[in-house]
Amino acid sequence: METETVRGLVAMSQGAPVTLKEIVLPDPGPGDAVVRILTCGVCHTDLHYRDGGINDDFPFLLGHEAAGIVERIGDAVTDVSPGDFVVLNWRAVCGTCRACRRGEPQYCFATFNASRPMTLTDGTELTPALGIGAFAEKTLVHSGQCTKVDPEARPAAVGLLGCGVMAGLGAAINTGDVRRGESVAVIGCGGVGCAAVAGAALAGAGRVIAVDRDERKLRWARDLGATDVVDGRKQDPVTAIRALTEGFGADVVIDAVGLPETWEQAFYARDLAGTAVLAGRSTHLGREGAPDPAARRLQSWWFPEIELVRGLPAQPRLPGARRSLPPGAVGP
Fold this sequence. Notes:
By secondary structure, the chain is an alpha/beta fold.
């Protein structure tokens, strides 16, 4: 089997500084593809991997929000060819499991990744983040993880489709199941939050309320379809969202920050019969620092970025759930 050596960014152990390592890239096996990475975004999920918040399968080859060029393909690959410009997906869905058969491939129970492991030069097998490992010059993935895109598109923008945009859109359209005419509030308007705003608008929401403490992000949210904005430095988000929804709360509230305080705000800002969705950072719902074991139990095994609470009772209230966040509590 032929191999190739490239450089990649690796987390060797929990909490340790990441290091640039020589990575051995095997020839693609059946169904695999070697992709030369053009761009890769920096996502908080990579920090989760480094801190042991996803699993303990160290060492990790980090990076997953990426776009690149297919260089080589293995046997039986028909959907991509060398030279194709692609965005990398977390999973290649099977198409035959019960989730795929009912038209919900985002819940696929039998996804594919590369058939052969990438390793360090001493033979230590690497775990690629989300099956991708794109903080590298090249990576090995299953060909089904490659989605062809317009070669004229900007690689930096295309890479964001692989994680932040997909997580935000999915939170609104798939997990939150936003319907035409519903009211939606999005707490946190970074990359995932702005994508959730756009997803809610695309789904036909009647009112889309964007909440953040950064005026620039609120302008982005306006541009992407928010009908109302709430500056968290000046207003209590729960009170403001309820005031904009006739006192009932929004039909769907998406927390794109993932701090305990913002999750409480999302919970109490929804209608009593509504839905709260957590998009991102679910491993840190416990306490600051190391992920809390109880918080880990909140995660669905198939998708660590999304949590859903539907129709839970609003009583008894959690202490201080309506209070505003103190200045500086929500980072970039």
